[in-house]
Design brief:
The complex is a heterodimer of chains A (335) and B (246). Chain A has 335 residues and is of the alpha+beta class. In chain A, strands 1-2-4-8-7 form a five-stranded mixed beta sheet. With 246 residues, chain B is mainly α. The chains are: A alpha+beta (335), B mainly alpha (246). At the A-B interface, helix 2, helix 3, helix 5 and helix 7 of A face helix 5, helix 7, helix 8, helix 9 and helix 10 of B.
């Protein structure tokens, strides 16, 4: 097996999901190859669990741990097991320090000093007081540890609830996206149908290109590479519509370089930005990649214009400039 | 592998929870003796009575599995060890990705890899290939509409009394297993738990070890402790279910 060196910081960052995707991929390949690295990770993982249970993690690290590490039931179970072990060890350790609370058997230098003091008439009282203080201190330490563990339990439970809420939100967002993608696909199919109809001489109503629905969202399909400034795509928004989904059908080559986009909607006249969205991820319909940008209709109303343009750019990597994917023109009117 | 052998006889996958330990006691085949500590390979979505996933799952033939073992090492014993290592690493991978069923997805990954080897695919780097398959399986899992919502519901539905009972058992088993360690190992674990970072550094220096070496030593003892604890809980469960049956 190969020996690959990684410092502890990298391992901790991996465990707390702080590495970039590329770093993560490299790191995963490394530990799959290197048994000793894998053991080291598992050992550091134990330490991380222990630090969390003892309350020794710093604020941000604790948050990361709760959000990421406690996401799975398996990890939560390990936290509980670590908590048990620490609790048992602390009892064991205290029992060793004060076996049966018999002060005469103390072996520590402090114990020896107390025993000496106890031989003196005045020292007897002082020795006893010191011993009592020590017992009290130990009791407090145990209590403190117990409280810390309870706090860790509460934190853990809170993290579980947060995680569940997050997952539910995630699922909802996923469902919404799926619905939008399906809508977009239907719209694009209609658009194709119109195109085919036009080619075969049958009338193709413009309204098929656009669609407003009863559920307060309208959809306008745009196609990359067709900068039809003279004949922009049009949509008439009916009253009650709250959002306009701008679906951009991307060229096939975009599918080869999956990346997220920055979408900016501007007025053609005055070049005024009315809506920006970062990190728009492309989806794959049955036949081509597409992105959907949802814009609140009131932004168009507030702009007081009819002509708009949607600029899609892909963020730069390294020293390159942002890659402008396309500018698409469209018109929005209100019924 | 033993369970895998039995699985072939039964003609379907099985839950991973049953574990290889029990299987080792049951199966007498020569293969099982050779590979007696291997975990079984199962099918995704076949945990217990329910089908959790809609994603396409692959069945595994005996031949394909043997090809995989051969690819891992020509010596069957070493191949078994390599298989277990790969399995634990893949489980860790899925677990770190926040997946709630890492064992099942690991089995699915291994099934697919073995299948490819069985089909005679040229795989120059088996580990890299396995990781690639694991990523694909994970992606399919995240895109699976059925996913784990059922499982989440099940977890929520666990009665508080059962959980308390389980936690009490785990605590008792942990105590028992800690006591069963050699005094040297027990001391190390107890000290390690009660010391802070600087204390641990001092302890490592006193023992003539680097911090990393000490950490690994503690980790290995704890891994043994965990195995002991799992066995103890399983045994207690069996006793409880037997007494309930009586």
């Amino acid at each position: 097996m190969e020996q690959i060196s990684h410092n502890e910081q990298v391992i901790f960052r991996y465990l707390l999901n702080e590495l970039s995707e590329e770093e993560q991929a490299r790191f995963e390949e490394d530990y799959l190859r290197d048994d000793s690295l894998f053991d080291q990770i598992r050992a550091l993982e134990e330490e991380l669990l222990e630090d969390y249970v003892k309350g020794d993690l710093s604020g941000p690290a604790r948050l990361r741990f709760e959000r990421h590490y406690l996401a799975s039931e398996r990890s939560r179970e390990r936290v509980r097991a670590t908590r048990d072990l620490i609790q048992i060890c602390s009892f064991e350790s205290n029992a060793r320090k004060v076996p049966n609370h018999n002060l005469e058997r103390w072996g520590s230098p402090l114990g020896a000093r107390l025993r000496l003091m106890a031989k003196q008439p005045l020292g007897l009282g002082l020795g006893m007081a010191a011993a009592l203080l020590l017992i009290f201190g130990l009791g407090s330490a145990v209590e403190l540890l117990r409280l810390r563990m309870r706090l860790a339990t509460f934190r853990e439970e809170r993290a579980v609830f947060e995680q569940r809420a997050y997952e539910a939100e995630h699922q909802l967002a996923g469902e919404r996206e799926r619905l939008n993608a399906e809508r977009a696909e239907i719209a694009s199919l209609r658009e194709r149908l119109i195109r085919d109809n036009n080619q075969s001489g049958r009338p193709g109503p413009e309204r098929v290109r656009t669609r407003t629905s009863a559920n307060q969202t309208a959809l306008l399909a745009l196609t990359q590479g067709m900068r039809s400034f003279s004949r922009p795509a049009r949509i008439a928004i009916s009253a009650g519509t709250r959002f306009l989904d701008l679906q951009v059908n991307l060229e096939e080559q975009e599918a080869a370089k999956p990346r997220s986009y920055r979408a900016v909607v501007k007025t053609v006249e005055g070049d005024r930005e009315i809506w920006i969205r970062e990190g728009v991820k492309p989806r794959r319909s049955r036949s081509f990649p597409l992105v959907v940008v949802r814009v609140p209709v009131d932004r168009f109303q507030a702009a007081g214009k009819q002509d708009f343009m949607l600029t899609l750019t892909a963020p730069a990597t390294g020293e390159k400039n942002d890659d402008e994917v396309d500018i698409l023109y469209f018109q929005v009117t209100f019924k | 592998m033993i369970s895998y052998y039995r699985m072939l006889q039964q003609g379907r996958g099985r839950s991973v929870e049953a574990g290889a330990f029990g299987d080792a006691q049951e199966c007498q085949s020569a293969i099982s003796i050779l590979l007696s500590k291997l975990h079984p390979v199962g099918r995704v979505g076949k945990s217990g009575k329910r089908n959790y996933l809609e994603m396409r799952t692959w069945d595994l033939s005996q031949k394909a599995f043997f090809h995989l073992l051969e690819r891992l090492d020509v010596n069957p014993t070493l191949a078994g060890e390599e298989y277990e290592k790969l399995r634990s690493k893949l489980i860790f991978f899925f677990d770190r990705k926040g997946c709630p069923i890492p064992n099942e997805l690991c089995d699915e990954t291994i099934n697919r890899v073995a299948q490819k080897i069985g089909e005679g695919c040229e795989i120059p780097d088996l580990l890299k290939f396995s990781l690639g398959v694991a990523r694909l399986v994970l992606l399919e899992y995240w895109n699976d509409p059925k996913k784990d919502w059922d499982q989440l519901d099940e977890q929520l539905a666990v009665p508080a009394i059962d959980r308390e009972d389980f936690e009490e058992q785990r605590f008792e088993c942990m105590k028992k297993c800690l006591q069963s360690l050699s005094s040297e190992d027990r001391d190390l674990i107890v000290k390690n738990c009660s010391l802070d970072k600087n204390g641990k550094l001092e302890m490592a220096a006193t023992m003539g070890l680097t911090m990393n070496a000490l950490r690994l030593r503690v980790f290995r003892i704890r891994a043994g402790l965990r195995v002991c604890c799992e066995k103890c809980i399983r045994a207690r469960k069996e006793v409880a279910s037997r007494s309930r049956a009586l």
